[in-house]
Each structure stands twice: as C-alpha cells, then as structure tokens.
Amino acid sequence: MIDIKRAFPFEYTRFEKARIIGARALQIAMGAPVLIETDKIDPLDIAKEEFEKGVIPITVKRRRESFVWLERHELF
Amino acid sequence: MKYDNLLDKYPIPKALKEEIKEELERLNVNKTTAKKIIEKCYEAYLKNLMEPGEAAGIIAAQSMGEPGTQMTMRTFHYAGVAEIDVTLGLPRLIEILDVRKNPSTPMMTIRLTEEYAKDREKAREIANKIEATYILDIADVATDIRNMRIIINLDEKAMQRKKLKVEDVKKKIEKGLKMEVVEEDGKLIIQISEPSFKALMDTFDKLKNIVLVGIKEIRRVIVRKEGDEYVLYTEGSSLKKIMKIKGIDFTRTTTNNVYEIYEVLGIEAARNAIIKEAISTLEEQGLEVDVRHIMLVADVMTVDGELKQIGRHGVAGGKHSILARAAFEMTVNNLLDAAIKGDVDLLRGITENIIVGQPIKLGTGDVELIAKLGGRR
After folding, report:
1. Mean of pLDDT values over B188-208
2. Which CATH architecture has domain B133-213?
3. B321 within 8 A of B345, measured Cβ to Cβ
4. Which residues of B touch A23 (CB under 8 A)?
5. Which of A42, B86, B278, B307 has a 20 to 30 A CA-CA distance from B299?
6. CB B296 within 8 A of CB B64
7. To the nearest whole angstrom, how far is the Cα of B86 from the nearest Cα of chain A?
8. pTM
9. Closest chain B C-alpha to A42 CA, distance in angstroms
C-alpha cells in the first residue's frame, strides 16, 4: 500500500507542469540544445513535446514530504 | 462484513468508505470485483483531492461571494418556524460571519427528555416555566396618584395558567422593588413613601420590568408537535440557563446565537454552529454552496481556539503586514503609523510580495525547480 502522505501528488501538479515547461521553454528560447527530434519552431511547443516524452532535465523539489505546510500568518 | 478488510487498506475518509460499503453490499459482488470497484473509487477520490499550491481560500471566498450577490439585500422577516421572526438572507450571513454577540433575532430550538416530550401538558408546563412573565401579563396595574400608591389587580385565570400564587408574586415584587407590598382582598398594593410623582412613575416602570417567572431572555415560547414529540421554539435565547432546567434534553437543544454556543459549549461546537447556520441561510435562499467552502471559513474563524470575526478587513487581527494593510484602506495613515513605530514588514504574505514584485508562494510560484541529473531516461 502506498503511503499517501509521502506519495501524494503522484504526478506533477498542474502548477509544477506549467513551471517545468515554462523553465524549459526559456532555456530553449535562449539557445539550449533541443533534446528531441522535432519540426516545431516555437520554443513553448518544443518544451511541451519534451515534457510529454519525459526528457526535460528538470524536476521539482517537494518540501516536507510533498505537503506544503504554511504557517498561519502566511495565510493572510 | 467481507468488504471491511478490503476497504481498510485505503486511506479514504470514513464517510466515503461507508458509502462504498453500502453500495457494494447492495450489489453483493465477489471479492475480485469488489477490489476493482474500490480501486476505481480510490482513483476517483485522488483525482478529486486539491493539489498543493491551490488557492483554497480564494476559491472558498468566490464560491460564497458570488451566490451572496444574488441574495436579497433587504432584511425580510419571515414567518418561519412556528411564527417566530428570523433574520434571513444577506443580513443573517453577515451576522454569522461577524460573530455578533447579540444577533437581531435569537432563537432556540428546545427538545425535551422522553418523559416530557410525549405529553402536551408537560411540554406546556416547561414552556410556562421558561417564558419570561411580567406583571402586565397576569394583572392590571393602576396608579393611584391621590394616595401615592400602585394597585395591582391580579387576573386569576392568567395566574392559574402560569401556575402562580399570590404569595409568590408578592414575594417577587418585594424582592425586586425592595419595597413592602400589602395584600388587600385579592389586590396587591404598593405604597410609595415619598410624596413625589416621579418616585411613583419610577416604581411603576421598575415593576413592569420585574420577571416573575421564567428566563429574562426568553420572550416567547411556542410548543409544536414534530413527529411524535413536542418541541419548544423560543424567541430570545439563553443556552446556559435553559440547560439547567429539568426536563430539557440539552444534547438536542440548540440556539442560533453562535457566540453563545461558543461560550457555553466550546470552540468545536461553535465551528459546527457556524457551518450549520451559514449553510441553512444559503440554502433557504435557494443557493447551493459546497459545505467544504464554508467549513474552511469556519475553520479559519476558529483555529486559534477563540471565535474570530470576518469583516471587511478579513479575519480580525489577521493582517500583520503593513503593506497588505496599506493596500486596502487608509494607505497614507497606515504607512505613516508604521514609519513612526519603525515597523518591519517580513514580506511573508501574498499581498506584500505582489506589491514588491516578487513571485508569491501560491500555485506556480510555490514550485521549486531542481536539475534532474542523469539526463535521458
């Protein structure tokens, strides 16, 4: 059985996905070598395709067992 | 039974488990099918969880705010349960969130213990015991200016209905006024020693305000049959005093005054009361808001162990940041005050960081990227 606290969320959240693709698109736009064979020209499209294929050399660091605990004063 | 150990392994809420179990029992499927169903349910459950980084508070605010715009703005007093006026709609919602100590229409629902609940007479008896009775309810009061005295003509029928004796009334008045009361052929006479008209009128006013029986706050009691038991509805509320009365089942007795619940029953009860009152107010207006939004609001109001109101400035005393406060109202005053005091803004919240121009810790801004070393998979 999976430990839900450790494992959730199992995939990238939509925020993480946006962030990874965004960061990668910026790299490509600034001249980084593209890691896949593609006909696409727009760096964002290339980054999306790379993400789909799972070749982007970027991942996220999840703090405190993947749950974000905010302090109370940070809520307002 | 057989589905219990199957379900046990999954970290899903109890209520959901019960629901799945019920459905499985209805279908009466075998173990492998059941396992598949549960697996599917679990998947759906995970998909419905909120993602880390989601702005739960803002969604809750919008989910309550939008239906709020459709609520009736004016206070409509509505002859609701048992002809008791209850504030409804937006004013009531504001009242709940503001945690008013004295809501405009306090109301109680009193349920009785088994012995009293089934019998109309006994229920009536309790109703009489808690309803505040004043002298004007049971007697005609006249002032005799020539002889400087007040004459109370007791109404026997009313006395009997309230189960009051002349002796009791006399004692109550003597205690309340700290004056001597003389009984004269069924009438009570209060002689004013001072020969002044003002003293007479003052005593008269005081006399009118003496509570002879019952609880001062309970202005009216209505007995209604609900199902097979009699339930009391009251105008006015005093949970503390009501709970002490014999024959009242205080585990099923409530008030619509959230602050009173907090004082008497504690913070968890207050949280539940907020949720219940807010949901029923919205529902009454035909608006459907998911409980979870309201639960979040109630949670924020009660986390500190004391009831905090939510007003125009958000949760009372919640904003530490100078910039966040300045962004809302009285910008110059706030900044000036902070400057004089030498306050420091730690830029911990959302508003401050937006003002300063930094990414905020929310959604995409909350993601920390690191390089994945090792290259291709």
Report:
1. 79
2. 2-Layer Sandwich (3.30)
3. yes
4. 369
5. B86
6. no
7. 33
8. 0.77
9. 22
